[in-house]
Amino acid sequence: MVFSTTSSHSNILHILPTSDHHPPYDLLQHHPSLLLLSKCKSIQTLKQIHSHIIKTGLHNTPFAQSKLIHFSAVSPFRDLSYALSVFESVDQPNQIMWNTIIRGHSLSPSPISSLQVYDRMLKSGVEPNSYTFPFLFKSCAKARASREGKQVHAHVLKLGFVSHAHIHTSLITMYAQIGELDNARMVFDSNTLRDVVSFTALISGYFSERYVDDARQLFDEIPVKDVVSWNAMIAGYVQSGLFEEAISCFSEMQKANVTPNQSTLVTLLSACAHSGSLELGKWVSSWIKEHGLSSDLQLTIALVDMYSKCGEIDTARELFDGIIEKNVISWNVMIGGYSHMSLYKEALALFQLMLRSNIKPSEVTFLAILPACAHLGALDLGKWIHAYIYKNFKNISNISLWTSLIDMYAKCGCIEVAAQVFRSMRYRNSASWNAMISGLAMHGHAEKALELFSEMTNEGLQPDDITFVGILSACTQAGLVDVGHQYFKSMIQDYEIKPKLQHYGCMIDLLARAGMFEEAKNLMKNMEMEPDRAIWGSLLNACKVHGHIEFGEYVADRLFELEPENPGAYVLVSNMYARAGRWDDVAKIRTSLNDRGMKKVPGCTSIEIDSFVHEFLVGDKFHPQSKNIYRMLDEVDKLLEASGFVPDTSEVLYDMDEEWKEGALSQHSEKLAIAFGLISTKPGTTLRIVKNLRVCGNCHSATKLISKIYNREIIARDRNRFHHFKDGVCSCNDYW
DNA sequence: ATAGGGTTAG
């Protein structure tokens, strides 16, 4: 079918001589087969055209040969082994064919082999030209082959090619990319040939080695700056995280009357997205409209990213919906935008829509959606993704992808599967270790987390501040005061990591929960930053547990100062008074809450049944199965009562009066989710629930009993950690 | 009929 137009011409060309006398150039250029070659878009069509070329006898012409080699060696659909087979069939390849094959190798997974081709080229008596060396330097740069690069450099000097602009610049680029900035600079200085291009090459090198000031200095020396050099500056600043500088560089560029191009805008939008600069983002957006670039896909996607990261998720969605031909990247950006804004359900919904639209997800899709699965506890979907990755990306060693899976499994309550994924990884980075260590910590497996820490350091990996957050929280969950202290010291002394607020938070929590209030206070005095609400909150919680009312009141005042509008602090204090039986104070707190019109964050528990995440609030009656759920709840309460369960009323009073009247205790969101789980799954199935707040003491006791009465394993994630309920006991040993 | 600099939209 592809050749239907060629048959009428083939008669004419048959009269052309084929071997010794090549047909004239202009005739060949317009030969249908060779014209087709230029339009070819896949290796399959290329092969078909090739066989057609052989039939017409054109395969012996250097023109056809170099065209074939070109398309099979360096085009986007290249197939180097095919190119080599064509190349080997040529008797005496010319300079262009050799160069093309060398370039083909530079684009291949083993670019260094282009040097062997170069060797063969020289031995066959074909001279290199100014085209040859840039390809070779690109290969050396890609292979980080410093020694080989220098050998070729010596060749260039010997053959007198140094002053060729292309060779000069590619040499600078090579040294810059290998990280030998001094050599790059030497090449740059060794020549009077200093055009914008070579300047820009060196500037990018400086940026990649974080020599921002050198880059700027060099940039100021460029006599006539062009768009690319400005873009390199802006992109360099963005890469270095210097968004302010990137933005001011852009205004300089405009003062210099250089018109931005698409890359400028994309880079700028990325800077806005990372720094949250909505104002500039909007400005770029209107610039794009004014210049009629609104239909540009890349720009639109960059805008979607910018708007979603700057908090205007609805604007982002409108733009996304307006894209007529959505590609994977557009979906990824929008899904990632939702995840980034903690709109996990929306992320999940969009992902489902993507699948229904028959868009094949990419690795990045999963990097965007897995955190959403992790937060929602959407294990079924997470498992599906795992299977999909295993099938489609097994050979891609994307460490982040496997690390995201570890995190997802851990946060969905499957710590064993998380460990399996971790063990099956061929390569791990410190993020992978961190994910596993904090996963174990969340599940209260302190010993295993500590074991993993030594394994990590034994393998020569440097633990970072995140590793220690995992380790310290493992100690906190398990109440390992001394061990925690040792690691805290070791972090500072052996690993020279300055403790951050989070580390202090873990330690203060650890000490206070163990009743060591003096030590906790001392640590707070000695830290160089102000305690945040998490620290005061954990102190207040410890005061509640240990009945330290006086200190608790002091702590509560600090919390009120810090966040006067946060009802959470009032709830905690109310809890403390309730625990101590001081009901008058409880009432006072409640009145002041009501007077201020504050409502506590509603407790919300989700459970995934058949790949669908169901959410429940306290006393929720919106679920379609509500009647059945409440019938089950009644049964549960009766059985609980029958086995001697007495509700602990001290913890219920932090809820509003109305809820109390309705029996808020038995209608806590976690109990609704459990009741729904019991009626929606087969006997014996493990129930996994996720709660947005800490589980209350009453529900904790109730759930322990339910696990025994109904013979179910119940894995519950609360704000802080996991609780595995089984046979009437919880993995946290009632310490949380 | 082949080349040099920046990015890449995640």
UniProtKB/TrEMBL annotation:
Q: Which UniProt keywords apply?
A: Repeat
Recorded hits in Gene3D superfamilies, A to Z, give: Tetratricopeptide repeat domain
The DYW domain is annotated at 644-736
Q: Which SUPFAM superfamilies match?
A: TPR-like
Supply the PROSITE patterns for this chain.
PPR
Q: Tell me one Pfam family matched here.
A: DYW_deaminase
A molecular-function term among this protein's GO annotations: zinc ion binding
PPR repeats, residue ranges: 94-128, 195-225, 226-260, 327-361, 398-428, 429-463
Record's InterPro entries? DYW_dom, E2_motif, E_motif, PPR_At4g14850-like_plant, PPR_rpt, TPR-like_helical_dom_sf
* Keyword Lipid biosynthesis set for record: no
Name any Gene Ontology BP term.
Answer: RNA modification
Query: Which family does the record claim for this protein?
Result: Belongs to the PPR family. PCMP-H subfamily.
User: Can you name this protein?
Assistant: Pentatricopeptide repeat-containing protein
